[in-house]
Amino acid sequence: MSALGKLGAVRVGQGWDIHRLVSGRPLRLGGIEVPNERGLLGHSDGDVVLHAVTDALLGAMADGDIGQHFPDSDERYRDIDSGELLSEARGRAARRGYRIGNVDVTILAERPKLAPHLPTMQRRVAELLGVAPAQVGIKAKTAEGIGAIGGGDAIAALAVIALTARARPTAVRTRRRQRPRARVRRA
Ligand SMILES: [Zn+2]
Hints:
Strand content: 25-35%
Structural class: alpha+beta
Bound molecules: zinc ion
Number of strands: 7
Mean pLDDT: 89
Radius of gyration: 19 Å
Distance between the termini: 35 Å
CATH architecture: 2-Layer Sandwich
Number of helices: 7
CATH class: Alpha Beta
Largest sheet: 5 strands, mixed
């Protein structure tokens, strides 16, 4: 079997999120607190980076989305650390036999300047996903003053993730193939 065959199929997921910036809330991004006079409004801590990564992870498994698994009508998730949501999604992936290949995130924010905080975010996201920091890319861009993001009223994040499916044991495949045709019922 080739090395690629042993790794199993690669699955890709994408996620994106946007939250409004308001006064009186801490700014949580990428699992850390970034000093800023305003923070992201949300039922949870409003961490757009972790929400985008969680949605990408769920999407790669074709397992719904963050709103479906963690509804904002549920009081359990009020002001919750979004790291807990990502950890839950990571657990779902692990139970299904998926391994995380890499994650790539782009944050869209006019301010504050995020560059000094990106290495800390990278380490935190890697820790939450149980992977090495080298498997997590985090970039920040401004919106060139355009629209709500450019005006500093919101921050958005985009994420892409690649998962590898654990190859099924050969014995299982063989047994399936040898199942008598008569037992296969078609709907
Ligand atoms: Zn969100």
